[in-house]
Design brief:
The chain has 18 helices and 2 strands. It has 349 residues and is mainly alpha-helical. This is Cse1 domain-containing protein.
Length: 349
């Protein structure tokens, strides 16, 4: 008991780099002791969620994120569901209130808010989203179903967030905290569209429109920002892919220009081999292969537009298989593949 109390005290006072390690220790201990032999942990986390102390909030949320992440992949069992029930009963209400307050802070511009404060609040919001995701995977909790309107409205607000003072400092080569936050939101939307369609249906048209607008809005920034938006594009397209396969939403994607715009402005631009990819291929070929095990051997014949040809090959490989298995690969091909084989025979030497 004393060791647990001291560990938690150290964790809440430790700097960020040490806090994560202590949080891991807490999670290992909680795997055996929580909740039956360590009910104090839940009470302490609940208490901190109501505090106005960013450092303690970050420590508590980091621990909760690590602690609850296993809910995403563990097999359903009575023991697991009892634990989740206890967690939700104590933490879902204060987590919802904290989400509302933090989102209101970051979505309201003020000259008094510094970049550092924005970063801090965005980190807190990102952890809240990760926790929310973990708590929703096994089943839709009653509290979140009752407050779904506020959560969905908040997710839409996050996707539309644009904070110039924060984003201007982000690296071109990796996503910033706000980008990671938006990726997490798209993952949650995908989960709801696949698992809780009935509850999600009243919000789906608005959400699709917001995701679509964000993708189109990033179009002009992609060539400049290199890898920064890759993860967001993937998460957003995964959500749209989960929606478009459902017949009831087919009319959204059958509107004039929608599929053409998605293909030309998003998919094709993100399939093109970038200069940084070529640099890595030349300087670190093993790393390049690790990133893309199916990458093609690069040609030096730029006069033949080999980059565009490579793009065509990748696109056909992606859509050519109608059905496939892990063991045998593609088992049924689309009807147009036979025509594509003629193209390969004529164009690929």
């Amino acid at each position: 008991m004393q060791i647990r109390a001291q560990l938690l005290d150290f964790m809440f006072k430790a700097p960020a780099n040490i806090r994560l390690q202590l949080s891991e220790i807490v999670c290992v201990m909680s795997k055996y002791d929580f909740p039956d032999c360590w009910p104090e942990l839940l009470n302490l986390l609940k208490e901190i969620l109501t505090m106005n102390d960013a450092n303690r909030l970050l420590a508590a949320l980091t621990t909760m994120d690590e602690l609850f992440k296993r809910y995403r992949h563990e097999m359903k069992s009575e023991k697991l569901w009892n634990e989740i029930y206890i967690v939700l009963k104590e933490l879902a209400p204060p987590l919802t209130i904290l989400f509302t307050n933090v989102l209101q802070y970051v979505s309201t511009e003020s000259v008094e808010k510094t970049k550092e404060k924005y970063d801090e609040m965005l980190n807190i919001l990102h952890l809240i989203m990760e926790i929310f995701h973990s708590l929703n995977v096994q089943d839709l909790p009653e509290h979140f179903e009752d407050t779904i309107s506020g959560w969905m409205e908040g997710l839409g607000t996050i996707l539309k967030l644009k904070i110039d003072s924060v984003e201007s400092a982000y690296s071109d080569d990796e996503p910033g905290t706000l980008d990671k936050l938006k990726c997490c939101v798209c993952d949650i939307l995908t989960l709801y569209s696949q698992r809780y369609e009935e509850e999600f249906m009243p919000f789906i048209n608005v959400v699709i429109e917001i995701v679509w607008e964000q993708l189109m809005g990033l179009d002009a920034r992609v060539s400049i920002n290199k890898f920064r938006f890759d993860a967001f594009f993937t998460s957003a397209l995964t959500f749209l892919s989960a929606i478009c396969v459902k017949q009831r939403y087919a009319n959204i994607f059958q509107m004039d220009g929608v599929l053409t715009s998605i293909t030309e402005n998003i998919i094709l631009k993100n399939l093109v081999t970038r200069p940084t990819d070529l640099e890595q291929f030349e300087d670190e070929p093993l790393e390049y292969i690790k990133k893309d095990l199916e990458g093609k051997e690069c040609s030096n014949d730029l006069q033949q537009n080999w980059l565009k040809k490579d793009l065509v090959y990748c696109l056909i490989l992606a859509v050519g298989a109608k059905t496939e298995t892990v063991k045998f690969g593609a088992t049924t091909l689309s009807n147009f593949v036979s025509h594509f084989l003629n193209f390969l025979n004529e164009s690929v030497k």
